Structures are given as C-alpha cells and as structure tokens.
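Invent a record, attention on tokens:
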Amino acid sequence: MQTLLDLKLLTTFVRAAHSGTLSATALQVGRTQSTVTMQIQRLEDALGQTLFHRSGSGVTLTGSGERFLGYAERILKLHDEAVFAFSDRGLRGSMVFGCPEDYLIAFFPALLKSFGTIYPDVEIKVVSAPTPELHKMLRARQIDLALVSIANPDGEPDIARTEQLAWVGAKPTLDLHDFGTGIGTGIGNTISDASGAGDSPITARTIPLALPASNALDHKAACDAMNAAQIPYKISYASSSLSGLIAVARSGLAISVMMQKAVPNDLYILKAPLPALPKLGLKVIAGEGTQNPATTAFADHVKNMLPFL
C-alpha cells in the first residue's frame, strides 16, 4: 500500500528538526506538546523509520531523520509554490517572524493589519527577541524571517529605515540630584555639555541606567557613548522586556535608552549633557531555505511600508 505524507505532519517534523525541542515546536505550529509528539509518531509509523533521538533536553535527528529533512522541506516549498501559482483564492501559507520588541510595538500593528487586509489567509506567528538572538534563530531555522537592527547603517544595502536611539527619563531634563547621594559617586567634576558650549552645572555622579540585555545593540550603543564622553554610569537595572525598561524609567530611578519612535508619551527624550546616540538601520532578513511565496510577500510588504510608518 502506498504511503501518503500529511503536510501537517511534515510541517511539525521540520519545525521540530530546527528547534530541537517539542515545546518550542508546539508554540510554532500552534498545537499542544502532546499533539506534536503524536504527529511525529504518526509520521515515523508512516515511514517505518525513527526520525528523532529523544532525551530530556530535547530531540535530535537520527540518520534517517537527516535524510528525510531535505525531502520534507522541498515538499512543503513546492506545495506552497503550487498553491500560489494555481489557486484563485489568493496567497496562502504560514511563517514565523522575528522582531525586536520596540519595533514590534512601534510598527507591527499597522504592518500586520495592512498585510492581513491584502492576504487574509496567510498565518504569521511572531517571536520577539534582540537582534543577535534573531540571527541565531534564523541560522537554526527556528524563524523564517526577521526584522533586525544594523549598527552603522550608512552604506549598508537594503536598509528599509533608520531610527534614532534616544535617552529616556521621567523628567524633561536630567538632574542627577534626583537619583540621591547613595547612587552617585560624589566626585566633584562636571559633565561637559554635549553641544560643546561649556560645562554643565550638573555635578558628575554615576548615572544609573536601565538597559536591555547586554547583547542588544542599544545596550552597547549606550555604554559606548557614555565611555566615549567619560561620563560615569552604572547599569542599575537590566531587562529583556521593553515594558520593564519603561516601568523603571517612569519610576525616575534610572534613565533608559530606546528607539525614539517607541518612547511613550509620558516619558521624555533627554539630550545634553548626555552624549549623542547613534542611529540604527532596520533590515529584513530571510532564513536560508525558508523562502516561499508567503514569506516573500510579507518581506516585500515590510520593506515597502516601513519608510512610511
């Protein structure tokens, strides 16, 4: 009897092969972990082969699984291309998209709404992570497409948009005395005004910062700027969540750095005597071997719409 391969089982298998864990696969395909386990078992039964080694830390491909992975990916890609080429019902498909949280908040309600209006049958799952993590996930094929930050974007090809980083605080001007003597170093030097107009009257204390994860580009940009200006600082709060950084900035206990467009209306953009921050480029990157008509259409939509948001 001829074996028929279920496309849903193939999709689950490919996701599990690249994620390495059934829990991550369950999130990506929108199923429970037990359902994912049963789907993989059904596929193994249909092929008469064991596709994964299972352990407490996750799953890894067997030799048969390695060989079958290439077939499964080609079948799914050809299926999507065929449906797109011959269906009169419009574009269909699914993808996993990765994006830093501040871009997600600032841009994606409009992007997803406009894309969904044109292509209502394309399913998009969104993963939020810093740019370095998104690159890792693309290489591991855990996501299909990502919007990433590019440092020093001048001359970089295919930049969809540039965004200014900004210092953010609870008050319109920076007064180090608001932070209290317990936080500052108490040294008597003054901070030079960033405009070059002379010394600021603010006594140079150690400025408390609330920053994202150390591998994030805005974390590095903030530290590099403070070091270059020889302004003492300490990382008082660290959070991988933008909402966490915003909460600390609102408390007035530290200042933060974020994309200027993502600054909430109740917070202030701070300038001198703080040093200038760089711009970041926004770029859409696709994972190797994950292109299909749906991901291509969404990538083009993001590139075309971003400059106008």
Remarks:
- Residues 181-204 have pLDDT under 50 and may be disordered.
- Residues 79 and 237 are 48 Å apart (CA to CA).
- The longest strand covers residues 161-169.
- The two ends are 55 Å apart (CA to CA).
